[in-house]
Description:
6-stranded antiparallel sheet; about 20% strand; alpha+beta; 6 helices
Amino acid sequence: RMNVWTYWLGCTLSVLRRAGYALLPGKLPLPKNDRVKDSPLYDDVRTWQKTQMESMTFEGDRPSRSAAGKIDPALMRRIHRRTLLEIRHELGDLWRPSSVTLDRGRGISLDQAIAIMHRLRDAGFPDSALGVVSVEFSGRRHSFAIVHDREDDFWILDNGMFFFCPVRGTAFFRARRDVRVLLGFNFFDVWNY
Length: 193
C-alpha cells in the first residue's frame, strides 16, 4: 500500500506539473480510431474482454453500451485516490482479474487500471465512458484508467508513474511526445488515437 504522505506529496507535484502542461500552446485532440492494426496487445485485450463478459453473469452486472450513468469528477477523484492507496504497484508479466488485484492489494499498472475502471463502474459511471489505455515510453509499457467525458478528450487516472491526480489526456500527450499510445480498450471495443 502506498504511504499517505507519499500520495499527497505526489499529488501536489502532479498538480504543479498539470498546471505547466495547461500553459503549453496549441490543442491536441484525441478522437478514437477503432481501426486498430498490428498492436502487440490486441489479442490479449480481446481475450480479456471475452473472459470478463463471461464472468459477469449476475443480473444487471453485464456491461452495456446504452447503460445510463453519470460522470462525477469529485467521485472519480475519490475512487482514484482510494485505489492508489489500497493497491500497491508491483512488476509482473500477466494481468489478473480485478477481484484478485483487490484481494491481494497489489498488481501491475494494467491491474491497477482495470481495478479503477471496475470501481468507477460500480459507482455508476457509464460503461461506455470507462476504459484503459496502454502506452509505451523509454522501451517500457504502462497502463492507466481513463474516463471519456468528451468526444476528443478524456481524464487519465494513473498509478503515480506520471501523475497521482487525474489529468486531461490532451494536455498530457501534448507535453509528453515521448509517450506513444499502443491501444485503448473497454468492455466492448479496442481503439487507438
